[in-house]
Amino acid sequence: MRYRWLVPALAVAALAVGIGVALWVGPRGPDPVAGPAVDAWAQGDRPVTVVAAGPDADRVGARMRIDDAVADDLLFLVVAALRGRCQPAHAHELPRMAVLARLPTLAAGQGPESAAATWRRDVSHVVNDVVRQAGCAGPLSLRIGAYARVVDPEVYAQAFPDSYFDPGLTVRPLEAHGAPLAQRLADPCATVAYAVLPLDDVRAWQCTGLRAQARSAVINRCHAGGASPDEAAADIQRVVSGLPATCQ
């Protein structure tokens, strides 16, 4: 592969998360939770237009237009690969958080092995093409075949993992307590929160805020200490059990 900085992001995500065999599509809904604003967000920045064209881009863009799950995957790979090129020290943060939060990364667009191999080739070519053209700062106006989207890679990264499902988010997750992505990854209590309340499935939008608040409560309880492991585990289980059954 020509652009070697793409390999770590793709390889880590693929090996850690795995490749599914079925498409999933879920309705988009409003996010009732507003966490701290991402400092990097600059409303006045004009997006730089990046165009991926050709047969590969046409096939990928057509899928992105009709399937949110495919679009989620592609935008994740673009931002992860761009950070790998522009911020090597932070190259693995998005794939690591994707694994931690149990996001359905790379689950979309798979099918029979022969078709999957063609799809992976198309995706690789498109991601390389986009990242080759993109700069290292500011928002991008992406055009991949017939698909168009404006995304700010730094804002996307700091709002991750919630931004996986909503690339337009400009706030950090509630459970982040204002911490940047790298700091959250280093917090063992975040691992606990996502273990009991992962982002691994499409749920009713009403659950988004409730689950975020519950993750925040789990992290607070984890940080508080002063209890035996069994007591802490029981407290965390009570937080989860307090959610409506459809949101657990």
How is the secondary structure organized here?
Blueprint: H1 6-17, E1 48-52, H2 55-66, H3 68-86, H4 93-100, H5 113-133, E2 140-144, E3 147-151, H6 153-158, H7 181-185, H8 188-196, H9 206-224, H10 229-241
Parallel strand pairs: 1-2
Antiparallel strand pairs: 2-3
Helix pairs in contact: 1-3, 1-4, 2-3, 2-5, 3-5, 8-9, 9-10
- Provide the low-confidence segments as ranges: 1-35, 39-43
Rg to the nearest angstrom? 18 Å
Distance between the termini: 42 Å
Structural class: mainly alpha
Strand content: 5-15%
Tell me the helix content: 40-55%
Summarize the helix and strand pattern as letters: HEHHHHEEHHHHH
Throw out a few tags for this protein.
248 residues, mainly alpha, three-stranded mixed sheet, 50% helix, 6% strand, elongated, disordered N terminus
Describe it:
- The protein is mainly α and 248 residues long.
- It has ten helices and three strands.
- The protein has helices spanning 6-17, 55-66, 68-86, 93-100, 113-133, 153-158, 181-185, 188-196, 206-224, 229-241, and strands at residues 48-52, 140-144, 147-151.
- The protein has a three-stranded mixed β-sheet with strand order 1-2-3.
- A hairpin with a 2-residue loop joins strand 2 (140-144) and strand 3 (147-151).
- Helix 9 (206-224) packs antiparallel against helix 10 (229-241).
